[in-house]
Amino acid sequence: MATESRIRLCYMCGSSEDDVAKLHYFPSRLERSKIWQDNMGIHYTEETLQNYRICSRHFTVESYVDLSSHRLTRNAVPTLFPCRQLATYQVQA
């Protein structure tokens, strides 16, 4: 029986993990997860969020303990959403 492999994608921009972008799980603590969701403009249940990831393109350099390890600081919050800004610009044009 063949095993099914699932490709994980960034919830915000659809990027897959590669040498540049790393995928991060949503925080397991509900209050931290809510902060991320509010910042991203989404609202899902804890169970649903277990299936989603967000890529490193949405975090500032200061969000990382060490860039080479791709480990987020305890208080990191996604704040960069270039794909959202592009979509807004295109609608206004």
Automatic annotation (TrEMBL):
Tagged with keyword Transferase: no
GO molecular function terms listed in the Swiss-Prot or TrEMBL record: DNA binding; zinc ion binding
Keyword Cell inner membrane attached: no
InterPro entries: THAP_Znf (IPR006612), THAP_Znf_sf (IPR038441)
Cross-referenced Pfam families: THAP (PF05485)
Domain annotation THAP-type: ranges: 1-81
SUPFAM superfamilies: Glucocorticoid receptor-like (DNA-binding domain) (SSF57716)
Domain of life (superkingdom): Eukaryota
Key words, A-Z: DNA-binding, Metal-binding, Zinc, Zinc-finger
Protein name: THAP-type domain-containing protein
The organism of origin for this protein: Rhamnusium bicolor
